[in-house]
Amino acid sequence: MSQDSTKRNELTQEEKRVIINKGTERPFTGKYEDHKEEGVYICKQCGSPLYNSSDKFDAHCGWPSFDDEIPGAVEKHVDADGVRTEITCSNCGGHLGHVFTGEGFTEKNVRHCVNSISMDFIPADQIKLSDKQEVAIFAGGCFWGVEHLFKKTTGVLETEVGYIGGYKANPTYEEVCSHTTGHAEALRVTFDPGLIGFEELAKLFFEIHDPTQVNRQGPDIGDQYRSEIFYTNNSQKRISENLIKILESKGLKVATKLTSATTFWQAERYHQDYYAKTGGTPYCHIYTKRF
Ligand SMILES: [Zn+2]
User: Fold this and answer.
1) Is the terminal CB of the chain with fewer CB neighbours within 10 Å at N or C?
2) Neighbours of 159 (CB within 10 A)
């Protein structure tokens, strides 16, 4: 998979019609519509990984369908029709298709409807180990500060702030702040497990917020500021349980909840990299050595 984010592949006329001019291939004609191999779907134009085959499902709609994207790979915009949500490759901006929610196809209740022609496929056995990525999701108060402190860590490939753990699709910041959706402000961290382990990231998480505070972090009060780890595999769960035991053995009354990750809803663009954009420093998060 491409390491050079500026690389662009030559496109055919038909590829240009869809990828550049936002066209749509005819249903049931694309080569990945009924494709069931294990591997990763990448952007035809720039080679960036977009979707894992494990998130592909059969919607019988005529186009490849996925209920999740590789973190950070896909951007969503209001379509030119003003109604649908267009999806594009977040690296090169190439048109992929549209995303729909609330149709009830899978538990995540999301359908990325993607043109086959916008993608290429790499079978699992050809994916190099160095391309391995893992995702961790931490909620520990205002997500601006959490992102600021994780971003600088070696091995962290990508960070994204958003909302998780509630019961409304596509929540807005205002809805989350109104305490009616049950979401926590959270950070999704994509990391290279060859460079940093989940345990080190989780230790950092426990050291940059106060895990003993219930439904608040310093001046920020409310259930959206609760302390919670949304684990994405069983190993993360075990490591988190172990770290909580260590903190408890040191006398801390840990309030951090452990929950299996559900849909992570990306926050509005102005919240992403907030401190990097505004030049400020977090008021709510400071590092305290606890391990
Ligand atoms: Zn691309």
Assistant:
1) C
2) 23
- What residue ranges of the chain have pLDDT lower than 70? 1-4, 127-131
Catalytic center residues: 113, 142
User: Do residues 182 and 166 make contact, with C-beta atoms less than 8 angstroms apart?
Assistant: yes
Fold of 132-278: Peptide Methionine Sulfoxide Reductase; Chain A (3.30.1060)
Condensed to tens digits (0 to 9), the pLDDT of residues 98-151 reads 999 999 999 999 999 999 999 999 887 776 544 578 999 999 998 988 998 898
How many Å apart are CA 31 and CA 115, to the nearest integer? 9
Distance in Å, CA 73 to ligand 1 centroid: 9
Reported pTM:
0.57
CA–centroid distance, residue 140 to ligand 1 (Å): 32
Which residues of the chain form CATH 2.170.150.20? Answer: 13-126
Measured in Å, residue 43 CA sits from the centre of ligand 1 at 5
